[in-house]
Amino acid sequence: MNMDQVRYVDDAITSRHSVRAFLNTPVDTQTIKDILSVACRAPSGTNTQPWKVYVVTGKKRTEMIDRVCTAQLELYQKPELSEQYKETFAYYPETWISPFIDRRRENGWGLYGLLQIQKGEKEKMAAQQLRNFQLFDAPVALYFTVNKIMGIGAKMDISMMLQNVMIAAKARGLDTCPQAAWNHFHPIVLDVLGAPDDEDLVCTIALGYADPDHIVNTFITPREPIENFTVFVE
Ligand SMILES: Cc1cc2nc3c(=O)[nH]c(=O)nc-3n(C[C@H](O)[C@H](O)[C@H](O)COP(=O)(O)O)c2cc1C
Q: Which residues form the Nitroreductase domain (predicted)?
């Protein structure tokens, strides 16, 4: 690779950020296919390629949003229903410790601050949470599933595929938001998708063209300097 090519790759990686307001401009099907063709070059343990991707648009997208938003609103009214909507794998720890909880809080309050949501404004927070299930208005949802027989390693493989999708999308002028929020509603999601019983939902990506005028998309998250997470061992 020459230095220009290095810069293009680096730019695609560093300019990606989670977009939470999309235009309703449709995404060309061939472009989605191109992104997936590139992204599936992701490595996977012994080349098992454990990913399966459902590309959801149009009427199915509307049905998905309607059903999951209804469930989320019901859950908000009756928190005791949360038993029904348990994730099949724990994405987050049960007990948080520093520094992760601090970063999580900084992230949440940073986002809410931009949206002028203050502490205690539960209705506004719930409305913002609901935006997840409206796909932040993105015209395309990518639901990634895995066969239940596969282990934790398959989720690592799918994560690599997910990142590739987001970078390949960015290179084509598209933006994304990875979403674990949908995992709670896996029974509904898998039903709408018509997925077989042996599949689990791993992650969702909202895909589309970013709304350049929405303040939420100005949210750029910090990163620790490499000294804080790197140990050179000789
Ligand atoms: C696996 C995964 C799941 C995520 N789930 C959500 C989600 O459900 N809703 C959301 O708004 N952001 C979600 N995010 C986005 C993170 O909040 C975001 O990646 C993080 O704050 C860093 O910001 P950046 O993506 O803009 O660099 C998720 C990210 C990852 C990697």
A: 13-209
Pocket of ligand 1 (CB under 6 A): 17-18, 20, 107, 132, 177-181, 203, 221
DSSP strand pairing (52-56 vs 175-179) = unpaired
Q: Where are the alpha helices (DSSP H) in the chain?
A: 3-15, 29-39, 58-77, 100-114, 122-132, 152-171, 186-193
Ligand 1: atom nearest CA of 219 is 26
* pLDDT one digit per residue (tens) for the chain, 234 residues: 899 999 999 999 999 999 999 999 999 999 999 999 999 999 999 999 999 999 999 999 999 999 999 999 999 999 999 999 999 999 999 999 999 999 999 999 999 999 999 999 999 999 999 999 999 999 999 999 999 999 999 999 999 999 999 999 999 999 999 999 999 999 999 999 999 999 999 999 999 999 999 999 999 999 999 999 999 999
Rounded alpha-carbon distances, angstroms, from residue 85 to 172, 182, 185, 207, 221: 35, 10, 6, 24, 29
Look at ligand 1, atom 31, and give the residue with the nearest C-alpha.
178
Would the pTM of this model clear 0.90, i.e. be above it?
yes
Pairing outcome for strands 199-208 and 140-147: antiparallel
Separation CA 46–CA 42 (nearest Å): 12
Domains along the chain with CATH numbers: 20-89+98-221 (3.40.109.10)
